[in-house]
Amino acid sequence: MKYKPILIVAGEPNSVFLEIFFKALKYKKYKSPIILIASKKLLLLQMKKLNFKININFLNPAILNSYHLTNKSINLINVDYNIKNAFKKISKKSYSYIAESFKIAFKIIKSNFTHKFINGPISKNSFLDKKFPGITEYVSKSFSIKKNAMLIYNQELSVCPVTTHLPIKFVTKNINKKIISDKVNLINSFYKNIIGIKPNIAILGLNPHCESTDSFNEDEKILKPTVRNLLKHGYKISGPFSADTIFLKNNRKKFDVIIGMYHDQVLTPFKTLYEYNAINITLGLPFIRISPDHGPNQTMLGKNLSNPLSLITAINFLDKN
């Protein structure tokens, strides 16, 4: 097969993902065959509800190498899911369906059939059930990966939170020189090996203006020494910078990646700037895992108004790699 397939787990059944998946298929012709892991019943119900028509090519995951795959049909690996309506409220009833979908996908990836993987949004409360902060950690654990990084990627500027889906009160306890250095190393390797450049990285301070009236200032005690040490090892890195001004146009244009200490420190300004034009890439895995940068968005279910740009960006990225 000339182009490795893109494997997609649809994820939460009561989300806008299949809607944007249908729109992404309409958008353009992709070189890489796309394989969807989802419920046949759910797919047909939502296709009817959203007035989308395309043939379905049913696949047996045990003999994937025997198929000649194209994107003229939806290449579907069916996972049974008992549902009567196209959309319902998110609940834990979908747990086993989502878990089985991931199980099939991980088995295919471990067989070296493909290195390209996308998953649709997951409800953290109903699926992860407090066992993992997010899907980044869930996928990493499934492949015995201890070091990972969540990169929200845009070719103009990317961001990475050192701590991911973590309550603010736990942030300080979860940042140290080693964790930050590991993230920087993963980002640097990704940009060099996949993007083809040595990235210019900015580190943000934890405190407002990188100052603290507390006796222990994380910016002075943790971040500055970490940046100095990384510079000695040849990384293009600077900081810590104050988070309230780094995203101003003349400041952000100097960098390829901005690393923040917690989720909303970098995600809020980033999404304000780029909206749906971004993808969530898990660094540190032995394959490329991407999640479109949006959630289930229950308020938009069945309205056929959701923006597919993030999924299109994810597919386009994997289509080139």
Give me the secondary-structure category: alpha/beta
Task: Tell me roughly what share of residues is in helical segments.
Answer: 25-40%
Which segments are poorly predicted (pLDDT under 50) over 5 or more consecutive residues?
A: none
- Quick one: CATH class of the largest domain? Alpha Beta
Radius of gyration: 20 Å
Output the strand order for the largest sheet. Answer: 3-4-2-1-5-12-11-6
What is the CATH superfamily of the largest domain? Isopropylmalate Dehydrogenase
Annotated CATH topology of the largest domain: Isopropylmalate Dehydrogenase
Any idea what the CATH architecture of the largest domain is? 3-Layer(aba) Sandwich
Write the layout of secondary structure elements.
Elements: E1 6-9, H1 17-27, E2 34-38, H2 40-49, E3 56-58, E4 74-78, H3 95-110, E5 116-119, H4 124-128, H5 135-142, E6 149-153, E7 158-161, H6 177-195, E8 201-204, H7 218-232, E9 237-241, H8 249-252, E10 257-260, H9 263-274, E11 279-283, E12 288-292, H10 309-319
Parallel strand pairs: 1-2, 1-5, 2-4, 3-4, 5-12, 7-10, 8-9, 8-10
Antiparallel strand pairs: 6-11, 11-12
Looking at this protein, list some descriptive labels.
12 strands, 2 domains, Isopropylmalate Dehydrogenase, 35% helix, four-stranded parallel β-sheet, 17% strand
Notes on the protein architecture:
With 321 residues, this protein is of the alpha/beta class. The chain has 2 domains: 1-145 and 285-321, 3-Layer(aba) Sandwich (Isopropylmalate Dehydrogenase); 152-278, 3-Layer(aba) Sandwich (Isopropylmalate Dehydrogenase). Helices cover 35% and strands 17% of the residues. It has helices at 17-27, 40-49, 95-110, 124-128, 135-142, 177-195, 218-232, 249-252, 263-274, 309-319, and strands at residues 6-9, 34-38, 56-58, 74-78, 116-119, 149-153, 158-161, 201-204, 237-241, 257-260, 279-283, 288-292. The strands form 2 sheets. The protein has an 8-stranded mixed beta sheet with strand order 3-4-2-1-5-12-11-6, sandwiched between helices. It has a 4-stranded parallel beta sheet with strand order 7-10-8-9, sandwiched between helices. Helix 1 (17-27) links the parallel strand 1 (6-9) and strand 2. Helix 1 (17-27) crosses helix 10 (309-319) and helix 6 crosses helix 7. The two termini are 14 Å apart.
